[in-house]
Structures are given as structure tokens and as C-alpha cells.
TrEMBL record:
<keyword id="KW-0472">Membrane</keyword>
<feature type="domain" description="TonB-dependent receptor plug">
    <location>
        <begin position="145"/>
        <end position="221"/>
    </location>
</feature>
<keyword id="KW-1134">Transmembrane beta strand</keyword>
<dbReference type="Pfam" id="PF07715">
    <property type="entry name" value="Plug"/>
</dbReference>
<dbReference type="InterPro" id="IPR008969">
    <property type="entry name" value="CarboxyPept-like_regulatory"/>
</dbReference>
<dbReference type="InterPro" id="IPR036942">
    <property type="entry name" value="Beta-barrel_TonB_sf"/>
</dbReference>
<protein>
    <submittedName>
        <fullName>Carboxypeptidase-like regulatory domain-containing protein</fullName>
    </submittedName>
</protein>
<keyword id="KW-0998">Cell outer membrane</keyword>
<keyword id="KW-0813">Transport</keyword>
<dbReference type="InterPro" id="IPR039426">
    <property type="entry name" value="TonB-dep_rcpt-like"/>
</dbReference>
<dbReference type="InterPro" id="IPR012910">
    <property type="entry name" value="Plug_dom"/>
</dbReference>
<dbReference type="InterPro" id="IPR037066">
    <property type="entry name" value="Plug_dom_sf"/>
</dbReference>
<keyword id="KW-0812">Transmembrane</keyword>
<keyword id="KW-0732">Signal</keyword>
<dbReference type="Pfam" id="PF13715">
    <property type="entry name" value="CarbopepD_reg_2"/>
</dbReference>
Amino acid sequence: MKKHTFISLLITFIIPFSIFAQEKFTLSGTVSEQSSNETLIGVNIIFPEIGKGVVTNEYGFYSITLPQGVYKLQISYLGFRDITQEIDLSEDKKMNFQLIEASEMLDEVVITEKAEKLNIKTPQMSLNKLTAGTIKQIPVVLGEADVIKSIVLLPGVTSGGEGASGFNVRGGAADQNLILLDEAIIFNSSHLFGFFSVFNPDAIKDIKLYKGGIPAKYGGRVSSVLDIYQKEGNSKKFRMSGGLGAVSSRLLAEGPLKKNRGAFLVGGRASYAHLFLPIVDDGNDNVAYFYDLNTKLNYKLNENNNLFLSGYFGRDVFAISESFENTYGNTVLNLRWNHLFSDKLFSNLSLIYSDYFYGLELDFVGFEWDSGIRNFNIKYDLNHYLSDNFKLNYGINNIYYRFNPGEIRPNSEDSGINREKLIDKYANEFGAYIDAEHKISNNLTLQYGLRLSNFIRLGQDELNIYENDNPLLFNEELQIYESAEPIGTETFSRSDQIETFTNLEPRVALAYAFNDNTSVKASYNRMAQYLHLLSNTNSPTPLDVWTPSGKYIKPQLLNQYALGYFKSIHDGEYSLETEVFYKDIENRIDYIDGADLIANNAIEQDILNGKARAYGLEFLLRKNEGKFKGWLAYTLSKSEQRTPGRTALEPGINNNEWYNTPFDKTHDISFNGSYELNQKWKFGANFVFQTGQPTNYPSGQFEYQGLVVPVFDGSRNSERLPAYHRIDVSATLTPRKNKTRKWQGEWVFSIYNLYNRRNAASINFTRNEDTFRNEAIRTSIFGIIPAVTYNFKF
């Protein structure tokens, strides 16, 4: 009887479940651009009658499982023509779709802001998307389209000012941003010390900036993730495009390796900035230029396997006469294999090499200096589409680092400089994650995940040993910090583990949609950062050195909370995003007064571990459709740091009080707009206003042996530079005859800093040699700059 009852239960529950499972089928495939076979990221595949849908991943793949039935299918990627058709889903189907451009204009203009429209119901928040087309329409300095200069127009993102490299997100430092190019880590994102970014917009396919709500697949930084993918190349026909600008020219070629099966892309860019930016009056012997190369190959082995090989190489050269030369740049290489296990399981395996090099040669001193950081990364990511309401992303990655803090060599036999090598450092960073996208109901959607990170500081040739493991002493009599003398050194083999850190990093985000046009979202992030940029300047420079966490340096740990309100207005013509955020960071490195970071083999003698916090309100109003498009962004925020003493007798930094970080900008307002007058003329403008950057002014001075020495006795960063603001404008001319010929071109006329505002990059205090009175001198980088750029394709 019991056996019969058990069998009845099986029949009652298992058989109906099996029948139900059999009644569901999977539709999967890829979505690409018809003219080139280039896969498209973030395409919407929607079944409007049942309110279900999915978007393509980073490789254009999609998968959705639905009950058996006949459905109306809509595919949309704004800037391209929609596809609407009826699907009889009575079995598993694989369907690839190709979208046609909605215009015959230049590709860079076709892919418009519409791809960045708000998705109300997804839990992903604190995310901004930009396309190459949007970036190319934003007026920037010297007419050069620029990724970094474009994202600083978004809420929560600022720069250190003109001529400053990197960018700051929600009050974080530039080294707290994870910058990825085709999944490879970029350690320095700037050309010419911050005037331009290393990303060639001709070669860029998709850009995402995560400021919060960061998925578990990303790790290693505590402020943001800038994820950039390059184009794959045209597998149908050979094409070329490029441009001639005021300070640089670029050329990109793409075409089939085998028609409809494989493609290549090669893009080059070089500047001749030294012709327009003389450093001194007789600057004929001075140079300041950069060049870079983007490459990508892809090949479709069969329906389930694709191979990609992508790379980037860039260099900057800055020299003054024959006495000084500085060379630096990035090299990355990535081999990727896409494999489709089934119509529900997509995988990507990547083997990545990344190298950042910095070289300096001083002939008048007689030495050469090299430093850098190199890493090897293997990562494996899987997208598992379990049902129409549940998707899993999971994977692992492992990064091996070699840090070269610096090596000095004589560059001639009579230089008098002895060869010296700072001790190389080694580390290994491992991460494993699982991330779920879960639609609970038509109104509530969750994204939750967990990342496990493990960091091992590996053995090195020498490591200082200090009494009581204390490399920094406090002199109570003088009330200053002093370096401790090592009591010995310890030597390790490369496989030894000097220090090990393990952290769990939970991530959760949710979206509650009141209707199709309005939602609220919330997110929480826990993240760990094991690398630190040693810099006591306001923005990174090539001379700054990365160092790993270890015996004396702890990893940075972040907690970030965000809450937002999102609304689509007039059927998506306008969109509104508002967010409040709060984040705190443990173990943020701080530097004692008088810290010397250059060529320092014992950096632990100059730093203390502190904490940082930032909080604020972000507002973004977009106009997505019509002849006029653009956005208005405003951020109200605070960014502070505090480094308490290690004992009750120590004052720490700034007397144990919170002080402004160099990235604290109370008010940040930006506007970007473009107006399409007709098919021939398009106009653009942007306005930027930022509260002045925190700085330090001397409170007094004294004279010693004829030298005037300034005295700084106030709080750190208690003063500010004057407010920063400017207006830029542009006009794009597309000749009508482009429609009838293969060669297509456009002229871009731009004016940077229209009203010639002399924004202060710094203010220095000195004595006037004529009046012998002290005076403040404002240093400005740019005034008004007109520029002309010609873009073409054929």
C-alpha cells in the first residue's frame, strides 16, 4: 500500500511537471548588422503580448525559453530598423537576425543615443552607456573625439581638470576605476598626460560605465568599471574609414578573412601635437606625440564555436631637446573562444596579456629609468539561460602580476650613475563568481550574486623586517612621523606566500516597476581592491607606480548603497534618472607629510591606512528622440578621507579629522545637446560647471638663507581652486552628394571653450622679482581653441 501511494505521488507530481517542461521551447541565436555581420550588443528581443523579453550579450547571443505557442516577435535596436514577425514556437529553434541601418549616413552617426535609452524594469542601475556615434558628436578639445572626455559629462563622473589624466567616479580616485578593453586591463587610459584618451573611437563598438550596482563578474576595483568592446570587423566587404584632425589622423581598415565567416580590423592613429603645442618658444627640437594600433580578428569555426584575437598597442613620446625623453604606453592581447554548449548555455574563454610600460631618459643627468606592471589573465565566463524568468552568469578568472617598481641604468660610460634595480613584486589574484537575474513577477526583478576573491602576495628577493612589524614611527617630541630603520631583510622563493587575503563580495540589486514607465531601484555592492597606485598628485601621471597589497599594505574594501527613481516620459521621448548613493572604503592609503614616493624601495615607511567616504545625489534628464537630442546632468556630492592615529597619542593625518579628497566636487553640472537641422547640417554643444578642486594654500612664510619658504599649517585640502566652467560648440557638415557615391565624408567644425575661460589648473605662490611682493599665479592649460576635422569612409 505504501509502495502504491509513493508511485501515485510520482505520477501526480513528476509526470505533470514533465509534460509542462515539454511544453516549453527555447528560441536562441545571434543578432548582427546586415551590412557587416558585426554582432550587436544589447538588442531587445521582445514578445509584447506576454510581456517577456531578453537582450543580446557582449557577443550578440540571445536565448529565451517560453511555453509552446504562436507569438508576435519584435526586435529593436534603435538606430536600426525594427523587425516584427510571427514565430511558431513548437520546438527548439535557432534563429539569427540581421538588422538594417535606419539611415544611409555614416555609421558613426547612424548609431545614435537611442541605443542608450532607459530600461525601466531591469535591476541594473548606476549604469551609463555610450556609443561611438554619441562620442563623436560631443565637442572636445582640439576636435578629437574622446571617450574619457565624454563620460565626464555624465552624472557622478568628474576629471581632475584640463591636462589631468584619468577620471573620478562618485568621489573615488582614478586608480579605483577598472578599465577594460576587450576584457584586458588598461592601467593608464591617457595620451599626452591626460589631453586625450587611448581609445580610438573608430574602433570602438560599445561602452558601459558601471558606477554602482556592479555585477559580480567584475572585481578588483572599488569605484567603477569602464567596459569597452572593440568592433569585430566587416565579414562581407572591405571598407576603410578615418579622419584628419588638427592634432592627429586616424585610419581604419576592415574586411573579410572569409566571406560571412571571418573578418579582420586594423586601426591606427598618430598625432603631431608637437607642431601645434610648442613647449618653449624655440620648440623645434621638442616633441610631444602619441600613436596607437587597434587590431581584431574573428573567425566562425562552426555554428557553436567562434574565435577572436584582439590587441592594442599604444605609445606616448615626450621629449625636450636632447636632454629629456619620456616614453610610456599600454600593450594588450586577448585570445577568446566562444562556445555554445546548448541553446541555453553560452561560454567565453579568454587568455589575456596586459603590459603597462614607463620609460624615462635624462641625458643631462646620464641615466635611463624603466618601470611598469605586467599581468597574465585567464578567465572563463558562462551565461546560462535557465528560463524566461531566470538567468545565471558564473565564471572564474585568475591574474598573475609582475610589478617592476623601477630600474635605473647609466646611458653612457661617463654618466657617473650606478645601475640600481628596485625589488620586483609578484602577486596572484583569483576570483570566482555567480550572478542571478531573477524576474519574480511582472513588477519585481532581482539581480543578486556573490564573488569570492583571493589575493596572494608572492615571494620576492628581499622584504624589510621591522621591529614589532612597524615600518613607521611617531616622534612624540616633534609630533611627526618618521621612517623606521629595518632590522633586517627576509628572502623568499617565488612560490612562497608572503601574505594572503580572501574576501566575499556580495552584490544585490532590485527593480520594482509601478508600470511600464516608472520604477524604483536599489543596490548594494561589496568590493575589494588589492592594487594601489602610489601617487600624491591630484591625478595619475606615468611616473606613478602600482603596488600590491601585502604585509604592510591592506586591500581596500568598499560598501556602496544606492537608491534610484527612474521614469520614461512621452513613450520614451524623454527619460529621467535620479539616484542617491553612499559608499565607504576601508584601508585607503594616505601619505604622511613629506612622503617621497619616487624610486622608493620601502614605501611602507611613508604611508598609513585610512578610510574614505562619499555620498551624493545624481540627476539625469535625457531627450532621446527628435531633431534635438541630449541630456542635462547634475551631481551634488561630498568626498572625504580620514586617517586616524594608530594609538591615542598619534594625531594621524589632519589631526584625525575628515578632510576633502582631491576629487571632491560639491556641484557638477553638465549639458550636452545635438540638433539635426537637416541631412546636411548637425550642431552640437556642451556646457560644464564644476566646483573648484580642493587644494592647499600657504598660511604664511619665513625666510631662510635668502630663500622664502611657505608655511602650510591648515587642514588638508581646506582651500579650493576657482570654479571650473566652459562652453563648447560644433557643427557637422555632410555633403548631399555622399548619397550617390562610395566615398562618404563629413566636416566637423568645433570651438572648445567658446568664451575663452582661463580655468585654473593650479595656483602657485611666488615672490615677484621686481616688486619683491608675494603674488598668486594662475596656471591655465587651454583658452579658446577652434578646430576642423574631416571624417571619411569608403
